[in-house]
């Protein structure tokens, strides 16, 4: 796959994946199109068998079996996350003030709030409802059209806005839907939307909905050298890992896991700190003793975006560790293990990148600044597997619209494809 085809696919995926549930739906469809099958309870997964995938809420695991016995060959894993900082709709959301209808929100994750003002917003997520037969069913919704906005306060009413304006999420971030209509009730609105799709629905019981910016992802810049989009952190890594898995040669056991809830700590049934991945691996190896042995022969690459050095804020980076956009994927290192990178994992990545003719950069936080984290340390701690944290350089992380390079995701995909096809063993025995 060449770079232009890859980037066009990335833009399409970003546009489709307006919530973690939609990201899983989009990845599942691509896996089915490539011949993967949904995991069956009684299915046997052995060497050379068909690729399988497993969905749970906003998380997904996909596996391509290798040609040799798993216990001897080890498992090559790539991990990413499907969620992004956003505004989630509260259960009793309707707010009526001064003749306007708004919806109450809760901030999900560490969102950069200022860019949310004056954007054309829509709603997407999952709705749970009473099926006509009396059971609970779920359906995904995505309105696509702009149905809301969070208007800014005019500078004439706050002359210090450009110097010192704080944002109160409870009081100032409720999206505006319309002039007040007393007949509007969100659950009824959702029920009408689902009925229009010919679903057998009696009542909407609950929902998980998030607002998102309707501006389409785009390749921009004088030479089209940038990718601008919402949710680059971390759908870019999900798509890159997926394409690498689909293009792997099938010789090695290869796995992609995309977890929900990373932005809020990963502690959930479908998060990296939950049992989803370990349960899946135990399905491959029912013998409990075999899992630690398998992990000794395996590796996890945690793919999550990295902070590019900003030309207007160069002092926010260590001067020797400022990744450049389109300078290649970034190995992320932290002495306090906020990133799980070890020297042997980093060395293997550098070797694979060199073979793929891809440049590699390094990132370490300034010694006087706190460091973020990823699913990498969580997975390493849960499974005891060698783990490497890498990512694509990005501007505006956690903004409603982020910026990455049009070369970098494609370069990372080439390295991950080489990783998925690298012969056993990953690491030679110590002399």
UniProtKB/TrEMBL annotation:
<keyword id="KW-0862">Zinc</keyword>
<dbReference type="Pfam" id="PF02127">
    <property type="entry name" value="Peptidase_M18"/>
</dbReference>
<dbReference type="InterPro" id="IPR023358">
    <property type="entry name" value="Peptidase_M18_dom2"/>
</dbReference>
<comment type="similarity">
    <text>Belongs to the peptidase M18 family.</text>
</comment>
<protein>
    <recommendedName>
        <fullName>M18 family aminopeptidase</fullName>
        <ecNumber>3.4.11.-</ecNumber>
    </recommendedName>
</protein>
<keyword id="KW-0482">Metalloprotease</keyword>
<keyword id="KW-0645">Protease</keyword>
<keyword id="KW-0031">Aminopeptidase</keyword>
<keyword id="KW-0378">Hydrolase</keyword>
<keyword id="KW-0479">Metal-binding</keyword>
<dbReference type="InterPro" id="IPR001948">
    <property type="entry name" value="Peptidase_M18"/>
</dbReference>
<dbReference type="GO" id="GO:0004177">
    <property type="term" value="F:aminopeptidase activity"/>
</dbReference>
């Amino acid at each position: 796959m060449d770079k232009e085809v890859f980037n066009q696919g990335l833009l399409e995926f970003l546009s489709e994946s307006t919530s973690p549930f939609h990201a899983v739906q989009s990845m599942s469809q691509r896996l089915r199109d490539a011949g993967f099958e949904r995991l069956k309870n009684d299915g046997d997964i052995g060497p050379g068998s068909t690729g399988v995938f497993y969905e749970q809420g906003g998380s997904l695991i996909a596996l391509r079996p290798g040609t040799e016995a798993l216990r001897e060959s080890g498992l090559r894993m790539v991990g990413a996350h499907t969620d992004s900082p956003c505004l989630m709709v509260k259960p009793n959301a309707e707010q009526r003030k001064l003749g306007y209808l708004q919806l109450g929100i809760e901030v999900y994750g560490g969102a950069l709030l200022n860019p949310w003002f004056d954007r054309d917003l829509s709603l997407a997520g999952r709705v749970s409802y009473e099926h006509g037969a009396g059971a609970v069913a779920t359906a995904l919704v995505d309105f696509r059209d702009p149905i809301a906005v969070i208007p800014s306060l005019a500078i004439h009413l706050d002359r210090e806005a450009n110097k010192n304006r704080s944002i109160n999420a409870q009081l100032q971030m409720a999206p505006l839907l319309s002039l007040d209509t007393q007949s509007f009730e969100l659950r009824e609105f959702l029920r009408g939307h689902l009925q229009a799709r010919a679903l057998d629905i009696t009542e909407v019981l609950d929902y998980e909905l998030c607002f998102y910016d309707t501006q389409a992802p785009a390749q921009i810049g004088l030479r089209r050298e940038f990718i601008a989009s919402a949710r680059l952190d971390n759908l870019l890594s999900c798509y890159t890992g997926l394409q690498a898995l689909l293009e792997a040669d099938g010789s090695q056991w290869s796995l992609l896991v995309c977890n929900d809830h990373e932005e809020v700590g990963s502690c959930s049934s479908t998060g990296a700190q939950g049992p989803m991945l370990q349960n899946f691996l135990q399905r491959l190896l029912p013998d409990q003793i075999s899992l630690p042995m398998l992990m000794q022969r395996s590796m996890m690459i945690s793919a999550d975006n990295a902070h590019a050095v900003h030309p207007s804020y160069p002092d926010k980076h260590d001067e020797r560790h400022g990744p450049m956009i389109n300078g290649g994927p970034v190995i992320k290192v932290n002495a306090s293990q906020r990133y799980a990178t070890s020297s042997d994992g980093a060395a293997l990545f550098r070797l694979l990148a060199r073979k793929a003719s891809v440049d590699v950069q390094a990132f370490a936080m300034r010694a006087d600044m706190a460091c973020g984290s990823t699913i990498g340390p969580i997975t390493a701690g849960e499974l005891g597997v060698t783990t490497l944290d890498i990512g694509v350089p990005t501007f505006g992380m956690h903004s409603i619209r982020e910026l990455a390079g049009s070369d970098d995701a494609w370069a990372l995909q080439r390295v991950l494809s080489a990783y998925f096809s690298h012969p056993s063993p990953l690491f030679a025995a110590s002399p």
